[in-house]
Amino acid sequence: MSDRHTPTPSQTIGPFFGFALPFPGDADAGASPETGLRINGQVIDGAGAPVPDAILEIWHGDVFARCATDASGRYRVTIAKPPPTRGPSGTTLAPHLDVSVFARGLLRHLATRIYFPDEEEANAVDAMLALVDPARRPTLVARRDGSDLRFDIRLQGTAETVFFAL
What we know:
five-stranded mixed β-sheet
């Protein structure tokens, strides 16, 4: 019998998909910078360090983007702004993007949302935002950064992004 044992995924820390994902053009979701929203940000761990190997999936409806973070934990996507929608019970939901975060050290992906800073009225009556402590709601709203939007994702610690249990 060999002394060498191959670790299984439950014994190691991922991600295991970095060699195959994302695909070229995934971060552009069929939108150009002229027709879509450009969103930039950084994924930061609990110690305030950048997460250089995370993958983000960002979508609304059937519009989907996927992007990896670079060595500084930064990402960029271009995607169309979604319209307001209705929740399962008929409640109004402000325009938002759904986000899944995959990163080393996470046994399951994290789910969050990006809300828009120019939708203050819709955000004020959004059923999902109403469930979040008012002091933590700003972690779900992107901010203007020139002509782009900026949305940083803090995995833990001070100003941790709100994540939703699915």
